[in-house]
Amino acid sequence: MNRIGFIGLGVMGAPMAANLLRKGYQVTIYNRTPGKAEELIELGADNAETPAAVARAAELVITMISNDDAIREVYYGQNGLLSELMPGSIIIDSSTISPSLAREIAGDTAARFADFLDAPVTGSKPAAENGTLVFMVGGDPAVMERSQEVLLAMGRKIIHMGPSGSGATAKLAHNTVVGINAAALIEGMTIAASGGIDAAAFLELVGSGGAASRFTEMKAPKLLERDFSVQFSLSLMLKDLRLSSVLSDNLKTPTPVLEAVKSVFQASESMGVGDLDLSALAYCYEQWIGKPITSHSNNETAAALALDGAGHTTQDDNQSDRRRSGRLKLHIPLVLSVYQWEQEGSFTGQPIDGILCDLSDSGLQISSASPLERDMFIHIQFPKDAGLPPVMGRIIRIETIDGAFRYGCLLAGLAPYQRLLLEDYINRQSKIE
């Protein structure tokens, strides 16, 4: 089998497809969101316009997609994968989906005289890049055997879990353990931080004792560096925990720890950090205790920031002096919208272009060509690359400078984790400027 199709070029899918190309396979790719195929095309991939076109071009098709709804679109939608599936071909789904959907697809694939394996993976982005993923497979063992060479081009191990749906079930059970491990580690770090224990020393202890885990080994450096770049996002972990909760209900299996941990992930996602790595769960705990649980001595922002007992941020003397002696000159585009404004001539909800000019201890200074009013509440959205959740602010001061309106904006209800993110982003942008 040399002609491979690959659908889904996200954090995991793109490096998996790249490994197939490097191993000499002819790969036809498709992604629902444009713009993710260029690097793979440079490696030799052929780009298809639809999932159906992938099915026509390949003997074996791999899908790596985010959720059940997206899977249904790719398999059953207009120009979907199943519409042009060739008899004798194999589909391998490596997404994390519900076992019932995996069994449904297996039945519909068999009706077209083809084979299906649900084969999700364990191992996040680094394992996908290094080709060291572990596949847990549900389906016919003979079909798995026929697919072994392709799977081992992307991973180091294949484990047969049982009939169709078993791979999906195993993945949800596995990720339940991962989610619980994540919450356990960060909750322990929170206790240590509240008791004045250095984070690095505590993580060394965890790695050396009975609390050691693969999760700790992988995430301890990221936590110490406050590096929440995505290996596996918090929102995707929450999605898996929700699927696991539904599955356990269907199986009439009690899972009290799962439910508690799911609630913590839900609280974290509601704080706006869902697109960060799942270790950003730390932000939720930091808000609860009013202080960071880790700091990085080489990170100016993390080292300079502290949180007082009321959850407000303070800077060290050097940073405060810098702010007092000279305002930061910034030019960061924003999108603003009025949150609530009921007077005549209002434009509630209308997007307004703005510029972030300065950051103060209590808020932001923004400029806009649009006239706003004192005490008006505005919804502030930062550039996508900032990785910042939207924040709410109230206009407390108005100036006119060089024909443009400048507004002093008091940030309303800013959570500690948001202040940390905002400070870090502002410092990075000020260095660029």
UniProtKB/TrEMBL annotation:
One family name in Pfam for this protein: NAD_binding_2
InterPro entries for this protein: 3-OH-isobutyrate_DH-rel_CS, 6-PGluconate_DH-like_C_sf, 6PGD_dom2, 6PGDH_NADP-bd, HIBADH-like_NADP-bd, NAD(P)-bd_dom_sf, PilZ_domain
Gene3D superfamilies associated with the record: N-(1-d-carboxylethyl)-l-norvaline Dehydrogenase, domain 2 (1.10.1040.10), NAD(P)-binding Rossmann-like Domain (3.40.50.720)
Cytoplasm is among the record's keywords: no
Every 3-hydroxyisobutyrate dehydrogenase-like NAD-binding domain range: 165-282
Occurrences of domain PilZ (ranges): 321-427
Name of this protein: 2-hydroxy-3-oxopropionate reductase
Source organism (scientific name): Paenibacillus plantiphilus
Keyword Oxidoreductase among UniProt keywords: yes
Family statement drawn from the similarity comment of this UniProt entry: Belongs to the HIBADH-related family.
Keyword list, A-Z: Oxidoreductase
EC number per UniProt: 1.1.1.60
Listed GO MF terms: 2-hydroxy-3-oxopropionate reductase activity
6-phosphogluconate dehydrogenase NADP-binding domain ranges (all copies): 3-162
PANTHER family xrefs: 3-HYDROXYISOBUTYRATE DEHYDROGENASE-LIKE 1, MITOCHONDRIAL-RELATED
